[in-house]
């Protein structure tokens, strides 16, 4: 119970009064004298990190003096939360009489609404008329971000200027992201774009960025020159933000050290069905190591017991590791380790060849490390390559195949003559030729499905619609089809990984076909990509010509699997118009080397391709350190133009050729 107090009266008597009554009276007086509780102070030019519901609640409870401020903040929050219709509705309800500060915020929100609605052209126009000088630091950061978003997908001077203007307003990771995005935009400029740029004399930061781009492009193929060029650039532009903090992709360049190739361990299957493939790769590796265009002498340890015996082997060394062989020649005697002696090489690099069929992979890697190896090239067979990540080796490894899903190990790169890689190159080539509705004719097997999947994934990245796939059977089946009406060109859409809503690819949101019904030649097909043997192609190409009239001829493409060297004039005329790809060596890039290689391997182009792979493996081994840290590095190899994709998977861009009036000609 609360205590009581006594109040003295005039008569001198005391009268008890309850304290609770006094407190109640005081509270009543205070309540009568106080106004309605005020909403928190608001600053529309500052951060707005609360959610939209909070701002809408404050809008309902606020007085007329600051209702517009809360409404402007609510629109910002709704935009940030992706609630575009609600944001537009609140924008429409904004009062007409606004202060100058509120008008500037309203205009900025208008631009942000335009960008969010993908009306980039309109957004760019209105942004140009907004006076950024009247904005606070936070508003300027949003203003430049709106400019960046409105110019995305088109590397241009306005986009670069927006990144540069936004940079001083950012800190921490946001600042680093800004530098990285500025650099990526510069890299997307074509030489014509760069040469046509006109900048102001006072744009020193922009001039510094353009000079850094020139240094990079002029020296990117030589790590030493690039390192020296970047250091010199930093001295010339000490106040450029990139001089203080380099873009992330350039940081490793300054610390790049060449991977040692003083001792190379070459891991190959030196016995069993794949022995002849290993032999071809080893000979190519030696030829490149010796620095001569002619094939290197065959190592004594790998010579057959009957050197005059010819053996034709059809090899499909792909990402699944499938290898089909014809009967092997006479038994060969091969030691588990064969050394390339100094007398066979013109330099001091020591190479040891380890037989992957003799010991487990982990044991061979440990043995190679004990022997002083600084770099491993191989293994070749997929089952061995799949074990690489689990081996936890610290050696740098250039694998000569790749797993289904390569791990991004910092010390492992993957180089394979993969049909999937060839299919991705075909997708890019067909896209560049403005074809948009391709049909793939591939073997009815897992091999064909893998090729189709790789083509389709690349096609989707380019912004294309679904690709159609049609299985083809053996040459006998195709002959029966030719005798019974020909080949009906139909196809089913290749299953794709579902695309997230509102995700754009190559600046567009690709439409997705809603029907899985087969489509025929009359249903929009404009190109056919064939993965078939020469015997199958001989039957397929004439049937395609018969299925289409002269006014709606399809563009026809084929993989290197179909190429038939030394084909007669009748075959070349029958293939009129067909485009196909193959490695540069077989496409005529080095006629003398091709003549020597085909003579060595008795015109077996499967082995010639592996020989070329061995040559490129040597080149890649000598640039191992740059493969991960110089994404622009390109090596002109005998198997294609070589570049490193994410995860250090080596991509090959192949030359394309075409049959024209009985002659094979390159496509420019």
TrEMBL record:
<dbReference type="GO" id="GO:0008360">
    <property type="term" value="P:regulation of cell shape"/>
</dbReference>
<dbReference type="GO" id="GO:0031241">
    <property type="term" value="C:periplasmic side of cell outer membrane"/>
</dbReference>
<keyword id="KW-0133">Cell shape</keyword>
<keyword id="KW-0449">Lipoprotein</keyword>
<dbReference type="GO" id="GO:0030234">
    <property type="term" value="F:enzyme regulator activity"/>
</dbReference>
<comment type="subunit">
    <text>Interacts with PBP1a.</text>
</comment>
<keyword id="KW-0564">Palmitate</keyword>
<dbReference type="InterPro" id="IPR007443">
    <property type="entry name" value="LpoA"/>
</dbReference>
<protein>
    <recommendedName>
        <fullName>Penicillin-binding protein activator LpoA</fullName>
    </recommendedName>
</protein>
<keyword id="KW-0472">Membrane</keyword>
<dbReference type="GO" id="GO:0009252">
    <property type="term" value="P:peptidoglycan biosynthetic process"/>
</dbReference>
<dbReference type="Pfam" id="PF04348">
    <property type="entry name" value="LppC"/>
</dbReference>
<comment type="similarity">
    <text>Belongs to the LpoA family.</text>
</comment>
<dbReference type="InterPro" id="IPR028082">
    <property type="entry name" value="Peripla_BP_I"/>
</dbReference>
<keyword id="KW-0573">Peptidoglycan synthesis</keyword>
<keyword id="KW-0732">Signal</keyword>
<comment type="function">
    <text>Regulator of peptidoglycan synthesis that is essential for the function of penicillin-binding protein 1A (PBP1a).</text>
</comment>
<dbReference type="InterPro" id="IPR011990">
    <property type="entry name" value="TPR-like_helical_dom_sf"/>
</dbReference>
<keyword id="KW-0998">Cell outer membrane</keyword>
